[in-house]
Amino acid sequence: MKQILAVAAAGLMMLLPYASLKAQNTCDCNSKQYRYIEVTGTSEVEVVPDEIHFIIGIKEYYEEEFDGVSKPEDYKTKVPISVIETQLRNALHSIGITDEDIRTQEVGDYWRERGLDFLIGKNLDITLHDFTKIDQIISVVDTKGINSMRIGEMTNKDILKYHEQGKRDALLAAKRKAEYMADALGEKIWKVLSIEEHGGGIDNYTVVQNSKLRMDAAAFGSPEAAAAASASDAFRTIKFTYSVTCRFALGLDWL
Question: Structure pTM?
Answer without folding.
Answer: 0.61
